[in-house]
Amino acid sequence: MALLLRHGRRALEVSARGLGSSVRTFAAQPATNDADYEKFSSDVNRSHVTWPKVLNQSLEEVDPELYDIIEHEKNRQYKGLELIPSENFVSRSVMEAVGSVMTNKYSEGYPGARYYGGNEFIDQAESLCQQRALAAFRLDPEQWGPHDRIMGLDLPHGGHLSHGFQTDTKKISATSIFFETMPYRLDESTGLIDYDALDNSATLFRPKLIVAGASAYTRHYDYPRMRAIADKHKAILLADMAHISGLVAAGEVPSPFDYADVVTTTTHKSLRGPRGAMIFYRKGQKGTDKKGNPIMYDLETPINFSVFPGLQGGPHNHTISGLACALKQSTTAEFKLYQQQVLRNSTALANGLQGRGFTLVSGGTDNHIVLTDLRPQNVDGSRVERVLELAHIATNKNTVPGDVSAMVPGGLRMGSPALTSRGFVEADFDHVAELVSRGVGIAQAVKKQTGPKLKDFKEYLEKEAPAELVALREEVEEFAKQFPTIGFEKASMRYTE
Predict the structure, then answer these.
(1) Which residue among 84, 101, 134, 330 has the highest number of C-beta atoms inside a 10 angstrom radius?
(2) Residue 376's domain spans which residues?
């Protein structure tokens, strides 16, 4: 297997090189004190050199304005409910790696083939990250390595705009600009992917690439069926597991690796790593021709070259280091227990909403996402999102099948990973469903009072929050403050109210 790690500006090939058997340990060193600086600057030739001391000052000392903003964000996370399924709370250890000296090094190129010197430890960290990525998904490094046509799930039906989404009048993403794209869709009567329609469309469209992945699909992909369709039409099958990669690593949902030619994922959602991404591609023999000769995969060189130097330059080494730490965590028993709780919690949220009269797209969930259709409540996702935001509940408006506007869609998307990281269990998520339900009721009442224009709705809330909204916000804050913070201690916070 070969693997590509893409972080902000670049991707990396998996290497089979080991890191050696030596293990080094270091004692923590204190920051240089004032006496050290005085001794350093006493040299007449250095009397003007004052910046090293400034460079070692804390953020609070150097930039109190930015520090204060960050402290306010800590407080928001502490007293609020994060329900956006693409968000999570990274561990303190990951945060330490991302904020480490690894950010200082420029390392254009690949491990062992850099364009700059001084990359001994950068190469070690990157190779370690690659090896852990393969191990996290139980992949064989011999088979995997981390103007054509593309088919992906339509955005209003739960797909992602990067999979080639376009409107009748405008190409939205770079994928749709550079390639011809055709979406496949859900069966609106069931909320499930219509594989028969996908197969029929592929017969006419003849895509070179089919994408199996979504940002708001709450059910499992039928990877064997997708593989069969791709083979029938001689297309590459790319699985985008950005949302479910943590669940895949834990073995809690079906894995795409047995069926896909290429697998991509972001690293900051259910995988609970820093913001980045990975690309895995198949290596070795793909099949045989009519004469029995081997047909080999030819993905390694095109992918590697297109990422670097084709599109990206120097990597974010601090992010790669943070990801290496997150990948190590993903192989632990505790991580598996966490992902099992993620699934139980999303089911509890789904059941709690259905029990309070809400309609869910597809009727429920198999993963960490819950997608609510608010149209039966005669309110839209934009209005409910804003009310919940003012109550310190973070969700996101989302299109549902039949929607015509992405800015005023009929759905609301929620997920369980972030709050599960804070220690929420099923009973807590049932209470979250109650809080969300109350927020929807407030949105209904304000819409009735302000009329059909979203602008009027938002302006009304800006002028004066209804008493019901104030009460909801206070209850949310008191509820959220019961749970642990992740990545920082409550005692270190400037604001706790």
Answers:
(1) 330
(2) 333-492
Instruction: Work out the mean pLDDT of the chain and round it to a whole number.
Output: 87
Q: Is the pLDDT of residue 4 over 50?
A: no
DSSP letters, 33-55, are: -HHHHHHHHTSGGGTT--HHHHH
Q: The CATH number of the domain where 391 resides is what?
A: 3.90.1150.10
Whether 106 is a known active-site residue: answer yes
Distance CA 368, CA 29 (A): 42
Instruction: Report residue 4: phi and psi, to 5°.
Output: -120, 135
**Is-catalytic flag, 53?**
no
Last residue of a domain, one of 303, 329, 355: 329
Residue 3: the pLDDT is 42
Catalytic: which of 6, 219, 227, 269? 269
Question: Number of folded domains in the chain?
Answer: 2
From 108, 187, 199, 468, active-site residue:
108
- Respond yes or no: is residue 266 known to be catalytic: yes
Q: Single out the catalytic residue among 275, 336, 375, 481.
A: 275
pLDDT 10s digits, 425-446:
999 999 999 999 999 999 999 9
Q: Of the segments 184-193, 298-307, 476-485, which one has the largest average pLDDT value?
A: 476-485
Q: Which residues pair with 279 in a beta bridge?
A: 4, 264
Which residue in the list 37, 106, 195, 460 is annotated as catalytic?
A: 106
